[in-house]
User: Fold these one by one.
Assistant:
Number 1:
Amino acid sequence: GAVVSQHPSRVICKSGTSVKIECRSLDFQATTMFWYRQFPKQSLMLMATSNEGSKATYEQGVEKDKFLINHASLTLSTLTVTSAHPEDSSFYICSAGGRGGTDTQYFGPGTRLTVL
Amino acid sequence: GEDVEQSLFLSVREGDSSVINCTYTDSSSTYLYWYKQEPGAGLQLLTYIFSNMDMKQDQRLTVLLNKKDKHLSLRIADTQTGDSAIYFCAESIAGTGKLIFGQGTTLQVKP
């Protein structure tokens, strides 16, 4: 399957700081990337859809000024959690889609964010 | 709106077959997926089926699709302890590229 990487895999930060998470599609050009959030023992919650060269589309209830998404190239999307608070602590997972013209999404390994 | 439902837990003995079930609501879904998630990891694509297919087999995995009942199942033959994980069913929303996930089924394999 396709390879998607995320960096960092784990980050601990102080309340009020900003954290950037990178998502890279390593072996195909992803026209669309998705950002999800997953709480313990729960399913994935879609936060936003990111298309290369255009603004991200956020799901209802997700603050676009808090979760900044940039999709500068067909292989890189970034999620920046601004002014992080303890309630932002979660597992963030990205996926890359558009390979072969299908809806199949290939997921990164996830980033565990802990805000103290 | 779209919804995907799964049972939350399944326990089987090593060597037995496991069957994980899923129901969905969007009849226009083009593809249906099964993903596997191990603790602390991302989702691994196991298999997917196109909506005009009834069955797809890939080694130990068999996917059955009943489009009339909007029911999808994943059968794992000769289940191993390494198959212990959470399995997510997902349907694609036509024209959006988005996936709707079920709650995940935790598969426990006892030796």
Note: Chain B is about 0% helix and 55% strand.
Number 2:
Amino acid sequence: EAQVTQNPRYLITVTGKKLTVTCSQNMNHEYMSWYRQDPGLGLRQIYYSMNVEVTDKGDVPEGYKVSRKEKRNFPLILESPSPNQTSLYFCASSSLGRSYEQYFGPGTRLTVT
Amino acid sequence: GDSVTQMEGPVTLSEEAFLTINCTYTATGYPSLFWYVQYPGEGLQLLLKATKADDKGSNKGFEATYRKETTSFHLEKGSVQVSDSAVYFCALSENTGNQFYFGTGTSLTVIP
């Protein structure tokens, strides 16, 4: 089954404790992206990647890092999480050239206390 | 910069009512426009798209027309069903297709 998976689905952590949210897709997609969803703000793009070792900033990259060492994986790293990073995070992927047809993962709800 | 503005919700309709969700955009170039739908507890799914002016996207009875003169992409459906209850997001992507901008989402509840 074609899908985008994220782990964990739910995470409660404390300020400053480094964490990684994993994202994996099994559709051989070149393009992958991370978004955060906040009430009243919709989805905002954090980072995206056009292919292995190619990443770029989206609209709200501050406080986040990403890496793309393998085509199928695109982890989101919070080196020192803060309460304002409490949010619902979505990973998405698509074929290059058809990047509008994004397939979204189920989401990761992160709470930073 | 690029942005998308969509009508505030929530919207509550009776089954078989007509639906319109307004969406307007600001873009520096010639963007592609999309509507995504998010069902409770799930990620977003592409509902329909239009890639150039005057294109009409359609899917599952929903339609939206790319209006360059009014910078709009309003979503419409002639007769909504309870199963259409979800959050609807308008979005745009410039021609490079790399960066996406989403609206704030409009929650729709359809009651029997």
Note: The first strand of chain B starts at residue 3 and ends at 6.
